[in-house]
Amino acid sequence: MLNLVFAITVALALNGGLVSQSHAEDAQKSSHIPLEAFAQLKTASGMQLSPDGTHLAFFVVHEGRQVIIIQPLQGKTAGVIPTGEGAEISWFRWINKTRLAVSYAYTSKRYLTTTRETRLYGFDLDGKNMINLIRPRNKQTIGTRLGTEKVPAQIQDKVVDWLPEDPDHILLSLDSDLDGNSEVRLIDVGSGHFSEVIRGNDGIQNYGTDQQNEIRLAWGYDRNSFQNRYKSSAKGYWRSISDTPWGGKGIDIVGFSPDPKIAYVSGYNERGRKAIFQINLETDEVLDPIFSHDQVDYDHIVKHPVTGKPVGVQYTIDQPKIIYFDDKLTRIQATVDHALPKTINRVVGLHEGKKLYLIHAMSDVEPGVYYLLDMKSKELQFIAETMPGITPKEMAPIQVVSYKNRIGVPIPGYLTLPKGRDTKNLPAIVLVHGGPHARDTQMFDYMVQFLANRGYAVLQSNFRGSEGFGKAFENAGRQQWGGRMQDDVTDSAQWLIAQGIADPKRICIAGASYGGYAAAMGLIKTPELFRCGISISAVLNMAGLIAHDRKYIGGTVWTKSMGLNGVDPDEVSPYHRADEITKPLLIIHAEDDHRVRYRQAEKMAKKMKKQKKDVTLVTLKDGDHHMDTEAARIDMLAAMEKFLAKHLKGAK
Question: What is the pTM of this model?
């Protein structure tokens, strides 16, 4: 079983309950904020209101790792749920008014392949009565490391439906017999006892329910393709979306309306932007869109924080916005936005009977604050800030910018300039996002703010291949590693120089994951443009990543979008072109990275040192791919600060 560390004493500054005050924003400007303030994990984060509206559960940080605190709205801490030994808490959720589900994650290996393992436990609100919610199928042993009597399921926390009308049970999918096909279990949250609702289907690892809690969706990968199926009604038969009149148009079911025969589907509008439509599953009639935008795609369906049912749509132009289907939530959102006009606000918990609403607020300079709105008393009460030591007035505002790439395509981006300093001829960082099919936004980013605080201009671009800007824009980056995507990043640096913002002799290219790949490729393709590069959790051996990913279910499908079309992977692989790197490169990588193996960083550094290149390898003992421990973030930012001070601050 997973070893949990219970010897914890946590001091939480909530003053024994809610306090009526505003978030402190009047601190004086500091020219040099301690590195640890930016590196800290968010505390009092992930906050959730209990179903009966009496308790809060949230993350705090203890010894650099997240634990969960359960606390009454009025009173002292009720319980503590600790982190695991060698594992991190990845998420938690209230199951009912007295019980929480907690997912633990850690890096392991199966058949010499790095994996991310998850385990799901149940706790009472006092932090006790811990049980493993996943029991063995037949006589199979459920463990937390390989080498037990039987090999356990790798992913054990895929909850299909929280069943709010049945607070003693949840629906969960699990591949317990390791055949690549998941069954669905109805699990008793007090004991872990279960019955099987679905035994398993070929090529299916995921399931979804309608608003009546009936299983209506199934999707996953077989060996060579993606499978996507649905039921037209609760008693209907399974049908492949590709076999429908509308399935060939790129439409996928993303949820259900209150009417079980009407599905919410994702498709493209006439401008090629991803929109939300409705389809009558019994007649195959495509109905009018319920959300469509000319500029951007929708991000995702917004679900009710208690029932989990679809209640709105989020989209992002520069900052996220929500359009609710629910009239009550629309009115609440308007009330909160009127009271907090400087932040992006979201209802993350509620109790309609008590008219209590838990609000999370953040912005480009605000990492996060929680408030409780009491509609009966008409009071908005401050609860907690998520990053103590980070004061909005000390942060650098993020500017929305746009530049045209070499073929005239407008590329959206964000520019952050050091606060209170000259905005011309600055040392600059071109910071490339990961994914690559992700995007940057105009919201708080601890690395961006750290770099700006240290005196660097930071430019983030949503290069072709970034998501959110339509089908054509995203597809333009498909199989363009080292190609169009790299060209757009190069053009962003040229734009910084043309605007007079960046000193052309003091520009560094940096990024994590795909962004770390782009940083290394930038030194290879345009050494005259960048003085140095920083690769964090980076893909450095393209062929190695493709070979590694093909070991996973679905890997033969998603790896088809990697690399450069028509080009051997080695030709766009930093490792295989290391001899072309002539500028200093900083490589930062965690040993337990499950997404990109540490050996990629280790072999790259070894090869460059053998070639007598200027390379620095910083090895992090933990933190995984996303630097999810405080120690990893501190070491990462410290290494970046030292490296940049050496190669940019002193360069002329």
Answer: 0.90
